[in-house]
Amino acid sequence: MASKTTPIVKPGLRSYRLTVLASVFMLAILLAVMTVNLLGQLRDLSRAAHDNMQWSISQLDTEFANLDATLTQQITTGQYTNESVQLRVDIALSRLNVINSGRVADIYSDDYRAKTLIEKINEFAEAAIKISDTPGPLTGLALVQMHRLVKKVRPHVRNIAVLGVTMGAERAQARRAQFATQLSRTGGIAIALMILMALLMLILDRLLLRASRRDTELSASSKQLEATVAASLDAIVTADNTGRIIDFNAAAEDVFGWSRAEIVGQTMENTFIPHRMRDAHHNGMHRYLTTGKPRVVDAGRVELAALRKSGEEFPVELNITTMKEGDSTTFIAYIRDISAQKINEQTLIEARDRAERTDKAKSQFLTVMSHEMRTPLNGILGVLDMLKTTSLSPQQERYAKIATSSSEILLEQVNEALDITRIETGQLQFTAQNFSLTDLMEGLIDVFEPLAHEKELSLTLDIEPAMRGPYHADAGRIRQILTNLIGNAIKFTEKGRISVRVSGIHGQEASSLRFEISDTGIGIPPGKQEQVFEDFFAFANSDSRQARSDGLGLSISRRIARAMKGDVSVHSAAGRGATFVLALPVNRTEQMSDQIVAEQEKTPLPTQQCNILIVEDNAVNRSVLADMLEAMGHKVQEAVNGADALDKEKATAFDLIFMDISMPVMDGIEATQRIRAGVGRNLDTHIVGLTAHGREEFRENAVAAGMDQFHTKPIRLDALHSIIAGVVSGQFAKLDAKRFPEALTEMIALLGQERVRAVADTFLSELDILINDIRHYDPKNDILPLAEAVHKAKGAAALLGQVALETDLGTLECQTRSGEVHTMDVWADSLAASSIDAQALFNVALDEGANATF
Prior knowledge:
Helix 10 packs antiparallel against helix 11 and helix 18 packs parallel to helix 19 (about 695-705). This protein has five domains: about 1-230; about 230-335, 2-Layer Sandwich (Beta-Lactamase), CATH 3.30.450; about 435-595, 2-Layer Sandwich (Heat Shock Protein 90); about 600-730, Rossmann fold, CATH 3.40.50.2300; about 745-845, Four Helix Bundle (Hemerythrin (Met), subunit A) (Up-down Bundle). The protein is α/β, with parallel strands linked by helices. It is built from 25 helices and 17 strands. Strands 6, 7, 8, 9, 10, 11 and 12 form a seven-stranded mixed sheet that branches. A five-stranded antiparallel sheet has the order 2-1-5-4-3. A five-stranded parallel sheet has the order 14-13-15-16-17, sandwiched between helices. Residues about 1-10, about 540-550, about 590-605, about 735-740 and about 850-854 have low confidence and may be disordered.
């Protein structure tokens, strides 16, 4: 697949090879020099040269002996022959030159003895030359004189000859020793060179083996790469720095419709780059090759459009990498056809939108239904409460009690329907408060006892003395769970008894309560004991219309219990009844004295007549509430909507206004805002909001509008007494929802100011770190860790009641996870400003509002 290229020798390997070759070359030169030197020394030590030098030295003595003999013979015979004498003198003197020059002279050059002898011999030579050069024939006197000189010099000649032979032998011996040393050195170097050559051969052999293995591996890797590229599901296109295509795999042929033979040699710009994008592609390639700054190249996967051979434009996911070789740049493009993925994504988006619309419609339906059912229940329970204040016969009291119990159970089921929406949207809230466990349980028994009596069932309560409390938790949610469990026990038990037992364990700071509701009903088969906790689950049998679970109660009860870090479980057998267990952790509070408990249980009744305005669009609810208040001795006026209430409050100063939140013409929120914004008589009047919707949905809006309290319909007679008593006594303190969120207020009440302050400081420190990370975020980095950090901060903000900050962080989280956030500096500045607001809110809440109530 890949184009062929010449092998590239790495710089390190090239340097290594040059070093090895230089070392071998230097050793070879050294060996050659030493060999030449040995040859010269060998010549010096040759036998012929040595013998010739010894012969030349010995001949000097011989020639002087011959001269002496010739002179002796002629002096004895008296026959003087100048030619023979002259010849012998010349021969002796010529031999004398041997010791004055040449190699023989080198032998004597460093010896002082030889120098003395040679000087005496040279003196003879001068004297002999002077005699022999005398004009005319030699006389007998001249021959006698020369003979004396010869006799005198001959010992010196003999000594110099002997000395020359001795010194020549010594020098020859020294040269032989030097030659032997040089020969040893040369041999050592030769051996070292041979060892080095052997080592180099071994190293070269290993390098050859390694190169062979690497070549095999590269060959296998190349084949594997070729197979991988050929089998790749992504199109892989290789182009040179001019954009000309040099390779094209099989997947690219399928994606673009071009065969490899057709497209290799053409340019990317003229083949599969859409016309509208060709200028941008050309400019981008030129910019990258000129400046080296990538935008698409080496920038990871990006989504673009591409062109098929047929001219069809389609979406692709593209990743371009580069490979540099000298001054040449090769571009490798990995291209994935994502047209099917885009179609699937669009289908999923449409399905999600449909699901969201369906879910929204369901939630809206449940909300509307709960509102519509609360409205008549408000009238029913109000009338029943009023009926209890009249003189009734025992049978009528019994009927009223049954009707009240049934209505309250129905109200709980309406609340459960609304809780489904809250649970699924994560908006289920808990309000912790101090409560008496004994009062809570006895109240539940009072509610259900009439229903149990109707079925001739016994309903008993047993609370372990050590677990009577009091405790700090959401008593309303505990009551809701137990209402479902006790109601189901009565519903599915035809005869026998229902027993409610409360036990538990006290820890060092908290307690674990265990509520057991046992019955003698039809029981639940083991295989369906977990199914009863599913939404809308019910099963039928031959003996009963339906078995345990009315569809929602048990499911919601378990979800609420688990949200409170507890659980609901069941132990049962078919036909042997069932025991449902609610296990729940709660915080303990200080034991209240009996006197304080009695004072709290006693409902304070108003001691003065109040002037009250009822703003309610439902005539029945308005009439029932008016009757209840008038029966308590108060003066009441009515308004049918917010606009009507504004007209009436301008004319009369009221002590208390009950304001329905949802009304036509003008709702209670707007009416309250206008009352608080005006300068009328009711600017500071206590306003209680009434809603048939859930409490959480309107709390912030109600408080922000200026309401002092609000109450979920139906409003009962006891609640009216408490509200009016609080207004008369002035015990209700106004609370600004923006300054003191409910979550923060509850946390301060539960943990104390110091602990909440420490938590707030930690939160703000971590928020500052997050803001700094956002401000210095590098778009090249993975954004997922930043999204997780924002999510963590959002959860902490929600826990501390920082609603605005929670909203901002939630928006930022969505943007980061979807990759749509681009203005990090703007977000950092916005969150920094929100952090300052949060700090101010903590300071005010902890220093001024810690004891405020709502």
